[in-house]
Amino acid sequence: MATALSTDLHTIRVAAASGGRLRVESRPRPEPGAGELLLRLSCCGFCGTDLFKLDHPEPGRAVEGAVLGHEVVGVVEELGPGTVGFAAGDRVAVPHHVACGACDLCLRGSETLCPLFRDNLLLPGGFSDRLLIGERAVRRAAFGLPAALADQAAVFLEPAACVLRGIRKARLEEAMVARDRGSDRGSGAVAAVLGGGSMGLLHLLVLKALWPGLAVAVSEPLAERRAAALALGADAAPALEEARDTVAALSGGLGAEAVFDTAGGSAALAAALDLARPGGAVVLFAHAAPGHGGEPAGFDLNRFFRSEGRLLATYSSGLAEQREIYRLLVTGRLAPAPIVTHRVPLSRCGEAVELARARRALKVLLVPDTDEDLTGHS
């Protein structure tokens, strides 16, 4: 039930409830502390990780009552004492996790494993019409947005940076350099993506933004998502049973330089390994099924050993990737807004969950309620 609120004194937030649901709550308007920003939400992406947390709460990690959401664009409403670099009215995109930048893990390039990286610096979370941005995020990772960059593109800054981290780990630059040397033998470099949901399509767009000449195949079981991949620039969009032949045709029989698994699970991993060239990379970018001990991998170890393959995992991003994605967004080289298929008011948050569960949406954005939303629904 939606309740009209005094937006000067209260905020609407959407918290996780039992049974994988979301509930709408009213809370006092937060006040920014030293170095913090109070942001008025413009939009927040509904991420696959949000759905995973709702559907698969981990033992020992409370989900009920938590405010999810971390793909945030908003407008600065108030600055805390001593906050510099921003002014009221500025549009901002900001990630929820920010490493310290100084510990041994950060200095070795593993910022996403920094102990401080676990802190959620969006309080209470992105599914809230107002939220506090923690001092470390304001100081190190908040991005002011130019007027020409639309909210529905800027909201992809954080997830696209996560994608970019995996792409950089896969070392595709080496394959593109080899191709540009002008070899007359074989076909050009090929990348494959398993899964044509929002993150699979975002992989496609980031890959094409970096290397327009890279051939990308997106394998997906749903016909409408295969069509979306082709419309967004995929060179091929086969069903899974056709993926191996498709990648072979694109690569002159060599296989994919890199395969990005956005589907998750042991079966998808085995399929991804089957698509990679000898010495190629497979990047895990999805949760597997939860449970006691997690889901074990089930691929042929000897075959993988003899292929000299590279199996990598990545789940988030550091400042370097975020800054590179910011430049791609601002210059228009990366234009992910077409992935957005639905905008849902916070008061109707349950619709976002069901759209994602039923795979009837690619990307859902949760947005603040208008007066009509608040008074027109019960």
Could you walk me through the main structural features you see in this protein, from its secondary elements to its overall organization?
The protein has helices at residues 48-55, 104-107, 135-140, 151-154, 157-169, 172-180, 198-210, 223-231, 240-251, 266-275, 301-307, 319-331, 349-357, 371-376, and strands spanning 10-17, 21-28, 37-46, 71-79, 91-94, 122-123, 130-133, 143-144, 190-194, 215-219, 256-261, 276-284, 310-313, 340-345, 363-367. The chain is built from 14 helices and 15 strands. With 378 residues, the chain is an alpha/beta fold. It has two domains: 10-156 and 336-376, Quinone Oxidoreductase, Chain A, domain 1 (Alpha-Beta Complex); 163-313, NAD(P)-binding Rossmann-like Domain (Rossmann fold). The longest helix is centred in the middle third of the chain and has 13 residues, at 157-169. The model is unreliable at 1-7 and 374-378 (pLDDT under 50). Strands 3, 4, 5, 6, 7, 8, 14 and 15 form an eight-stranded mixed β-sheet that branches.
